[in-house]
TrEMBL record:
One Pfam family in the UniProt entry: GDP_Man_Dehyd
Protein name: dTDP-glucose 4,6-dehydratase
Keyword Signal: no
Gene from which the chain derives: rfbB
Catalytic activity: dTDP-alpha-D-glucose = dTDP-4-dehydro-6-deoxy-alpha-D-glucose + H2O
Length: 354
């Protein structure tokens, strides 16, 4: 059999495809639009692997995707494709509505046509897994219990609102049409291939470039952190063993303030790449104007996936962070390609003859 992954050139999607092919031989059709966040350099280790077929396409392109589904007859579609950066959603929400809401809707329609109808499913065993975020639940007050699958949706940014809308569409396609769906809501990921606009890779890059390490507001915003490969193992578990129609929260039980995250990161950098002057990188932490509507706390209760599917993260925050820093130190050419924009020039040349 085959699976379809959308958004597989992005941060989590590329890690997922690589990990999938490490764990099984089932080929992957990787559909990605290659927006600024999509980078074929993330998939370089799969070059020449016949089990990986990359197709540049928009998830909203129903006719192209229908053709791919008929040709490859996948047993599952895993939808990672999204606009994913909260700050960008504040400055320009349009793409978030186009991809996260309309794109997911189009993909659901395409999947529904492929699957058949509940009275006459043409593809028994087929599954549509939608990858989502804990940000749909909104902000949690100090002392409140972590978000469970029963928590109310209260999204606060255009990003989280667009993801919430997509989650609701996925749910509705199950309840209305019987489409065999699964949804996962995960906390903040970090790890290899993380685009250096997000907190951890930005601070690693700035630290190594002699620049300040910017933290929003007072740095007391709390997030739960999960190493990206642990997110990938959770999704593998859900796509194979999850109950149709169910939602699974995925998290690492690692609640930390942003300031704690950056200080821990500086400690790892001090050890793995000490500064010549012997001063800690933490000396470069600065506080910058807070993001509008910045949620104060997210925390995930991952007990359902742990007890029902037996999933556990393999990494603690410290071990995952050490692996992440080491990856960035070993892959400075990747960082240079991304920060200089060179990876885009390659995409333009490859696809647009530019
Ligand atoms: P990313 O921005 O790094 O990657 C998104 C990928 O989707 C890119 O390769 C991009 O080119 C592609 N894409 C965008 N629009 C597309 C479209 N219309 N058609 C096809 N491809 C398109 O994002 P990420 O951090 O890897 O997140 C992946 C998924 O996981 C998203 O759905 C996100 O909401 C969710 N998620 C992310 C986190 C996190 O911490 N990064 C946490 C929980 C859930």
């Amino acid at each position: 059999m085959t699976i379809v992954v959308t958004g597989g050139a992005g941060f989590i999607g590329s890690n997922f495809v690589i990990e999938w092919l490490k764990h099984c031989d089932e080929p992957v059709i990787n559909i990605d639009k290659l927006t600024y966040a999509g980078n074929l350099g993330n998939l370089a280790s799969l070059k020449g692997d016949p089990r990986h077929i990359f197709v540049r396409a928009d998830i909203a392109d129903s006719s192209l995707i229908s053709g791919l589904l008929s040709e490859h007859t996948p047993r599952a579609i895993l939808n990672f494709a999204a606009e994913s950066h909260v700050d960008r959603s504040i400055h320009g929400p349009d793409d978030f509505i186009d991809t996260n809401v309309v794109g997911t809707f189009r993909l659901l329609e395409t999947a529904r046509a492929y699957w058949g109808t509940s009275s006459e499913p043409q593809r028994s065993g087929f599954r549509f897994l939608h990858v989502s975020t804990d940000e749909v639940y909104g902000s949690l007050s100090q002392g409140a219990a972590p978000f469970s699958e029963m928590s109310r949706y209260e999204p606060n940014s255009p990003y989280s609102a667009s993801k919430a809308a997509s989650d609701h569409l996925v749910r509705a396609y199950h309840h209305t049409y019987g489409l065999p769906v699964l949804t996962t809501n995960c906390s903040n990921n970090y790890g290899p291939h993380h685009f250096p606009e997000k907190l951890i890779p930005l601070c690693i890059h700035n630290a190594l470039s002699g620049k300040p390490l910017p933290i929003y507001g007072d740095g007391q915003q709390i997030r739960d952190w999960l190493y990206v490969k642990d997110h990938c193992s959770a999704i593998r578990r859900v796509v194979d063993d999850g109950l149709i129609g169910e939602t699974y929260n995925i998290g690492g039980w690692n609640e930390m303030t942003n300031l704690e995250v950056v200080k821990t990161l500086c400690g790892v950098l001090d050890e793995l790449r000490p500064r010549e002057d012997g001063i800690s990188y933490a000396e470069r932490i600065i506080f910058v104007k807070d993001r509008p509507g910045h949620d104060r706390r997210y925390a995930i209760d991952a007990s359902k996936i742990e007890s029902e599917l037996g999933w556990r993260p393999a990494e603690t925050f410290e071990t995952g962070l050490r692996k992440t820093v080491q990856w960035f130190l070993n892959n400075q050419a990747w960082v240079k390609d991304v920060t200089s924009g060179a990876y885009r020039a390659w995409v333009e040349k490859q696809y647009n003859g530019g």
